[in-house]
Specification:
Strand content: 35-45%
Number of strands: 8
Structural class: alpha+beta
Order of helices and strands: EEEHEEEEEH
Distance between the termini: 42 Å
Strand order of the largest sheet: 3-2-1-5-4
Largest sheet: 5 strands, antiparallel
Number of helices: 2
Low-confidence stretches: none
Helix content: 10-25%
């Protein structure tokens, strides 16, 4: 079985794990479902640069609007208004990566 034809990176806001399926959330509001796990897409070369911010989320950094941290809890707000939780174990990595991406765009 071959994987679902992945949409263009600039169309994907984030990927969400749903047991052994992956839900692609697209910038136009549509969703696509794949029968592969999020881990498979995490290692996909085409999605290089996406951030695994939680066991359930792999997101496209170009759609990050705001990052917020309160103590050991972090959240990311996307440009579409969706708020995703950042796991505490990935908090430091996410902060560093967001900082690097902001410096590249300046």
């Amino acid at each position: 079985m071959t994987p679902l034809k992945t949409p263009e990176n600039n169309e994907i806001t984030y990927l969400e794990a749903d047991i052994n399926y992956t839900i692609f959330h697209l910038k136009n509001g549509k969703k696509m479902i794949s029968s592969f796990t999020l881990k498979k897409y995490e290692t996909d070369v085409q999605l290089n640069g996406f951030l695994r911010v939680h066991k359930s989320f792999l997101l496209n950094p170009q759609f990050i609007k705001h990052f917020d941290q309160k103590g050991k809890k972090g959240t990311i707000q996307l440009t579409n208004g969706k708020i995703l939780e950042v796991s505490r174990r990935k908090l430091t990595m996410v902060k560093k990566q967001i900082h690097l991406d902001q410096n590249k765009s300046l």
